[in-house]
UniProtKB/TrEMBL annotation:
Its EC number(s): 1.1.99.14
Cofactor(s) this protein requires: [4Fe-4S] cluster
Molecular functions per Gene Ontology: 4 iron, 4 sulfur cluster binding; glycolate dehydrogenase activity; metal ion binding
Pfam (any one): Fer4_8
Stated name of the protein: Glycolate oxidase iron-sulfur subunit
Biological function: Component of a complex that catalyzes the oxidation of glycolate to glyoxylate.
Length: 434
């Protein structure tokens, strides 16, 4: 069935494309344009393609698929744009329009449904995934798999990531996790902690350290029951209805706690939570609730700084530290200075700002899995600047960035002299918190 052009324009948010004046300010900050050097892989090129569909000059939406799939969605272009083009909204709408019309094969259709709707939003299923990885890494299965050579033949190059995936928390430790922790001294704020799905299954230790650090600086922390996945992966893959469904579940869950802030420790999750107001802006029943939720959303670095920073930080003499900015934390949440302020408060470190620190590392959710070759080209470019700092520690604020930078260190043969850590891990080390 042919969709009337005016309906298609509304679906694609065509009117927003008119704000792009094709000036090119976005080009030097776009990782895919810098890496591939083609207009179809630039923000203005992609916007022009969407605009041509809205004007009826392109009638086959599959023409958009490759350029949009190779977009990292880092949204650095929005920070450089002099006319305020809402690139994220245009990208989101175009991807959803493509998915709506695309005829996926039965296996792919089932995989998308199972993973995006049944597994990732399901805490029990994600715990099973974490337990399985823990068993694999601690039982001898990992050693056997490596010895057999099977890891070299895994689909989507997953064998490349196998060595850098951290050992998750054991099932026993996970079962002992606190759901409510009081401030060490006088409480300054009550915060509701967002655990995330992948963050809690694979990086549960970082979540627990986050809760302890919040307590150290004066926060009563509540881990909200019945919370679910933020919906970022669903939104990035064009499943907007599912993303909205998850947003509503989280809003209902967090409304039960009278918290000053809703705190997260993952740049990608935080950006999605921050944008619930945008996501549900056209829903009369939910728009006000979503806006209130977004207004309370904070990255953990913001709350730690608001509480005056961490006390009694131990000196880290001789450590050269650099920081890889999370794209979504920087470009969407606009959180830039707080992580740097926390790092620079640690006595004894030598902080080195890398060149093009705001440029994406190539992780972007599951981009490094589904677009492995492109991701590795972008990572190799990032590692040139990382190596130039001669840093001994690379700090990140997002789980995907953390794994990507660990992989970059491995690919460059630098694991003997350089390590990648989440900001919370490093702050916990300096605070003596374990």
């Amino acid at each position: 069935m042919t969709v009337p052009l005016n309906e298609l324009r509304e679906e694609l948010q065509y009117d927003k494309t008119k704000n792009c004046v094709q000036c090119g300010y976005c080009l030097p900050v776009c990782p895919t344009y810098v890496t591939f050097g083609t207009e179809t892989h630039s923000p203005r090129g992609r916007i022009n393609l969407v605009k041509m569909v809205g004007e009826g000059k392109i009638t086959d939406l599959s023409v958009l698929e490759e350029p949009l799939n190779l977009c990292l969605g880092c949204r650095a272009c929005e920070t450089a744009c002099p006319t305020g083009v809402e690139y994220g909204s245009i990208l989101e709408a175009a991807r959803a329009a493509i998915v709506k019309r695309k005829k996926f094969s039965l296996p792919v259709r089932l995989l998308r449904k199972v993973m995006l709707k049944k597994v990732i939003p399901n805490k029990k299923m994600m715990n099973v995934a974490g337990h399985s990885i823990w068993l694999y890494k601690t039982s001898g299965l990992q050693k056997a798999a490596r010895a057999s050579g099977i890891m070299k033949n895994t689909p989507y190059n997953l064998g490349e990531f196998e060595s850098i995936i951290p050992t998750p928390t054991s099932p026993i430790e996970r079962s002992r996790a606190s759901t409510e922790v009081k401030a060490k001294l006088k409480a300054k704020y009550t915060v509701a902690f967002f655990t995330g799905c992948i963050m809690d299954s694979m990086f549960h230790t970082i979540n627990q350290l986050s809760i302890k650090l919040l307590s150290e600086v004066g926060c009563d922390v509540v881990v909200v029951p019945k919370q679910t996945c933020c919906g970022a992966l669903q939104a990035h893959t064009g499943e907007m209805d599912e993303a909205r469904h998850l947003a509503k579940q989280n809003i209902l869950a967090f409304e039960q706690i009278n918290a000053d802030f809703i705190v997260n420790n993952a740049g990608g999750c935080g950006a999605q939570l921050y944008e619930y107001g945008h996501l549900l802006s056209n829903d009369e029943e939910w728009a006000e609730k979503a806006a209130a939720f977004s207004a309370k959303s904070r990255d953990i670095s913001q709350v730690l700084v608001a509480c005056g920073g961490l006390p009694d930080l131990q000196p880290r003499h001789g450590e050269r530290v650099t920081y890889q900015h999370s794209c979504h934390m920087t470009n969407v949440q606009k959180v830039n200075q707080e992580p740097l302020e926390l790092l620079k408060s640690i006595p004894g470190i030598q902080f080195i700002e890398m060149e093009q620190a705001n440029m994406c590392c190539g992780s972007a959710g599951i981009y490094n899995i589904v677009n492995y070759d492109a991701s590795m080209q972008i990572l190799d470019e990032k590692m040139k600047h990382t190596k130039a700092t001669n840093a001994t520690v690379v700090i990140t604020t997002n789980p995907g960035c953390l794994l990507q930078m660990k992989l970059g260190i491995e690919r460059e043969g630098l694991s003997h002299s350089m390590r990648a850590l989440h900001l919370i891990e490093y702050l916990a080390e300096a605070s003596g918190v374990s």
